Design the sequence.
């Protein structure tokens, strides 16, 4: 069935359009996760175990869905989580996502494994920007990334803490996915059956990891899997002391991405973090771990009000966002929900994804009987 963007009314529609337009190895890199992908599926299905309890006659003609995250005012309570390798999915990559996020007044997270420079992102949008920091063995590289993010006017920095080694992403092993794509008979056949993608990849600007290419060859000039990159290039000795030192060096709003336990959330407060992203890296690291939504309530009970709590992962519907906020989240973020749309249609695709979510949030807030995000609380949810 041939799909068109105008007929994509939800994330699954956009996923199927992305599958139609991408070579197999590229699609399965977005779509896949670790081991048996149990945690990946649970990230979304966890929301099904929770019911919303609406109120009525609440005078909901005018809705305010804005939130403040790490000191940044967002026009909607969900933002684009940082994700790697975006110009593999569409030739505009981070440029398309940045402009779409700006149009909807929300934050754009940029990965250290991004394919457009931080400087360029800083020049093309004025809305809030988050830089996702990977702690490399090369301390000179670490210092350079912090300085470049500061110079580009990024508003916040998120240290990713759940990639101390690479997850077992078996779909990538089956397809042979690497960055950049390794040219084999099998991959060339897949590229040939997706000529529009292949033309954009081979005849536009050379693919590279924009902030890393001056320091490491892997990922830009030497093909490597993402899992192997994490295992070989990132510093497995990273500690809470390192996180605290990075927060001091950054000097602005600071977040830990990948916190899943109450004890770690409390430590995040102790080192002065402004936010945590409750995340299991989209199920791409430790399969069998809990879903972010399963952990929000107990983490909120422990540290709510002391820092911002962002649910990262599994969000597919506006009702998921409202359930997360009712459970204690400040806001939500997601990667696949916009990566499918980026792959499907570039900037118009990301705008479609964000527009769908915004419409769902507005409609569901009215049906829930609330005029602003601040009115949503634990009394509006029940767990099965």
Sequence:
């Amino acid at each position: 069935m041939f799909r068109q963007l105008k007929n994509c009314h939800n994330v699954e529609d956009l996923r199927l359009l992305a599958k139609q337009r991408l070579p197999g190895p590229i699609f399965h890199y977005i779509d896949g996760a670790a081991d048996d992908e149990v945690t990946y599926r649970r990230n979304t299905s966890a929301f099904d175990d929770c019911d919303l309890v609406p109120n009525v006659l609440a005078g909901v003609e005018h809705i305010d869905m804005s939130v403040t995250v790490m000191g940044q005012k967002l026009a909607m309570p969900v933002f684009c989580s940082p994700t790697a390798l975006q110009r593999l999915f569409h030739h505009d990559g981070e440029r398309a996502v940045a402009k779409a996020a700006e149009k909807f007044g929300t934050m754009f997270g940029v990965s250290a494994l991004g394919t457009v420079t931080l400087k360029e992102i800083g020049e093309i949008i004025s809305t809030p920007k988050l830089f996702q920091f990977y702690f490399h063995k090369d301390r000179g590289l670490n210092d350079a990334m912090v300085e470049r993010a500061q110079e580009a006017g990024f508003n916040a920095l998120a240290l990713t803490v759940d990639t101390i080694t690479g997850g077992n992403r078996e779909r990538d092993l089956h397809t042979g996915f690497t960055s950049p794509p390794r040219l084999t008979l099998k991959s060339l056949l897949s590229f040939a059956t997706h000529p529009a993608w292949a033309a954009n990849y081979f005849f536009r600007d050379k693919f590279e990891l924009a902030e890393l290419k001056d320091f490491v060859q892997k990922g830009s000039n030497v093909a490597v899997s993402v899992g192997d990159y994490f295992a070989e290039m990132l510093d497995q000795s990273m500690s809470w002391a390192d996180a605290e030192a990075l927060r001091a060096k950054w000097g602005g709003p600071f977040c830990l991405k990948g916190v899943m336990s109450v004890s770690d959330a409390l430590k995040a407060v102790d080192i002065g973090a402004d936010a945590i992203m409750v995340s299991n890296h989209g199920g791409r690291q430790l399969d069998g771990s809990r879903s972010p939504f399963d952990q929000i309530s107990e983490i909120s009970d422990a540290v709510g009000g002391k820092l911002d709590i962002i649910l990262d992962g599994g969000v597919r519907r506006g009702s998921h966002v409202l359930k997360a906020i009712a459970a204690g989240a400040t806001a939500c973020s997601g990667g696949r929900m916009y990566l499918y749309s980026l792959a499907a249609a570039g900037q118009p695709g990301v705008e479609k994804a964000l527009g769908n979510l915004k419409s769902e949030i507005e409609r569901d807030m009215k049906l829930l009987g609330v005029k602003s995000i601040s009115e949503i609380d634990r009394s509006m949810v029940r767990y099965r």
Summary: The two ends are 37 Å apart (CA to CA).
